[in-house]
Amino acid sequence: MCGIVGYIGKKQALPILLNGLKRLEYRGYDSAGVAVLNEGLFQTTRSVGKIDNLVAKMQDEKIGGASGINGTMGIAHTRWATHGGVTEENAHPHKDCTGNLMIVHNGIIENYRELKEDLGKKHEFKSQTDTEVLAHLIESLYKGDLRLAVEAALAKVRGTYGLVAMHASEPTKIVAARLGSPLVVGVGDKEYYVASDTSPMLAHTQQVIFLDDGEIAEISEHGVQIYNLADERLNKPSEKIDWDETTAERQGHDHFMLKEILDQPTVIKDALRGRLVESDGTARLGGLNMTEEEMHKIKRVILIACGTASYAALVGKYAFERLAGLPTTVEIASEFRYSDPVIDNHTLVFGISQSGETADTLAALREAKRKGAFVRGIVNVVGSTIARETDGGTYIHAGPELAVASTKAFMNMIGVLLMYALQFGRVNRLAVATGQRLVKAMLQISGKMKQTLELSDQIKILAKKYSGYKNYFFLGRGVNYPVALEGSLKLKECSYIHSEAYPGGEMKHGPIALLSPDFPVMAIMTKNQLYDKMRSNVEEIKARQAPLIIIATEGDDKAKELSEDVIYVPATMELLEPLINTIPLQLFAYHTAVMLGRDVDRPRNLAKSVTVE
Ligand code: F6R
Hints:
Elements: E1 3-8, H1 13-24, E2 31-38, E3 41-48, H2 51-60, E4 73-79, E5 94-95, E6 101-106, H3 112-119, H4 130-141, H5 146-154, E7 161-167, E8 173-179, E9 184-187, E10 192-195, E11 207-210, E12 215-220, E13 223-228, E14 233-234, E15 239-240, H6 256-262, H7 264-272, E16 276-277, E17 282-283, H8 292-297, E18 300-305, H9 307-324, E19 328-332, H10 333-336, E20 347-353, H11 359-370, E21 374-379, H12 385-389, E22 393-395, H13 408-428, H14 432-453, H15 456-466, E23 471-476, H16 480-495, E24 498-503, E25 521-524, H17 531-543, E26 548-553, E27 565-569, H18 577-595
Parallel strand pairs: 18-19, 18-20, 20-21, 21-22, 23-24, 23-25, 25-26, 26-27
Antiparallel strand pairs: 1-4, 1-10, 2-3, 2-4, 5-6, 6-7, 7-8, 8-12, 9-10, 9-11, 11-15, 12-13, 13-14, 16-17
Helix pairs in contact: 3-4, 4-5, 7-13, 7-14, 9-13, 9-16, 13-14, 14-18, 15-18, 16-18
């Protein structure tokens, strides 16, 4: 979703802004723009499409090229259209009537139509965006102090914003404000950065200030001063983050998605490290912030998430019910936030999110908190809003995930959910020996994941064989049903091939009507307690002559009787199977998408961090 970068300091702003935008490309966008203050005048370029188009346009216009921009302060933006089509006029930055004010904005100004009417005919609007209205609103309130004008404007606004503004009359000041859309300020040596997340600043500084909702930062040569919307000065020191630029690099791989799939055996160890206790057959996640007495009082668990994170949550449901005997439901955040959930102070709610910024998940968690639940986060991005707003929780330690399609975060979410289920299980009812078996299996899982990744070449050949098909079913039962959902989502979002996932037993209740020799099925049929049931479902598919790819456990020679296309994976405990069985599906989606020439890391229409509802 939209990305913001701002810079003020001693260096040339333009390269920093453009490199910063590149770092934010993973979020998804459809147009881009930049404005740099150059000898009292803003020099602005905007263009539809990729950042490379923006750079080409600057070269055409000789901006930053032969004529050069010597400005040391500027803002830049990647836009993911909400209000108004994908056009150059709608791309940010937007300016006021005088051209002295420039702003970039993420989020949605809900009352922009009323505000536009109030501003009246005195203002000339050049775009269809809510952001431009905000620029004119700030203009109408400007009396020589940009921060005060921004504060006054925001008092009239209903909606969400991550906003960065500059004014030509105040050439050494940037103002940034946040409500609902993330913003981080990077603190360097007499130079400052502001961005939607830390990735544009990691090359320059690891010292950051995460703005909270309702905060405004005034960034100038005097440093960073933070205010609330009531104009009170806040004391908010910077903190050091431990991600650095190299962890956010492709490291020689063709795509971030492949790198992140290959990273999985390493990052799963980071999720488990120091949290498993072999002798007691349990896990200790300090971030739970609950005493054993409080844990005993928990009578049910709700897992809230969107998309891939919700499929990880489904695996968590099996784990909580099987290991801890706690009734567990998985709620799609966008539904939960507008429902009437029955919640009490015996309910434990986990919000699961890679970005920690997903607007629906955040709103659902706030709702659960308001209703008295214990609310905890399972989050990847350090310092993200969900991580900060929940009363505890756990980082999944997957490292920066830059491909839009989530892979390694899914695995580490499952890892953390399994540990929470185990911790509750051992407090509630689980025998030490069972706990120890699970811990042992978890400690071996990284090696088995590595072994599974060696199937990549075989899967590439299969992807080629199957790449002409237009429709797919993914089937699994028990813990492998969420795996089927995830495999299907990966295929459709990366390759744009239509695909649906069902529990194996559901096929004959309708979907089986679609099966034909043109409709392949990916069936997860590993050796677990539902093996015989799943095998019967696969037989039913074979009888309808649908092409079959089967994920089977090593040594299951009988799988070959059902299809010539069998992918053999290492055996593990049933609850851990998703950590293995998802890998071939990720690789299948990846290789298929590459073969079809798709933009694998940035599939069309998608955004990495979905900060609007
Ligand atoms: C799919 C994918 C999305 C996200 C979803 C939630 O590959 O990445 O479905 O899982 O948008 O995002 P987070 O986990 O950031 O809350």
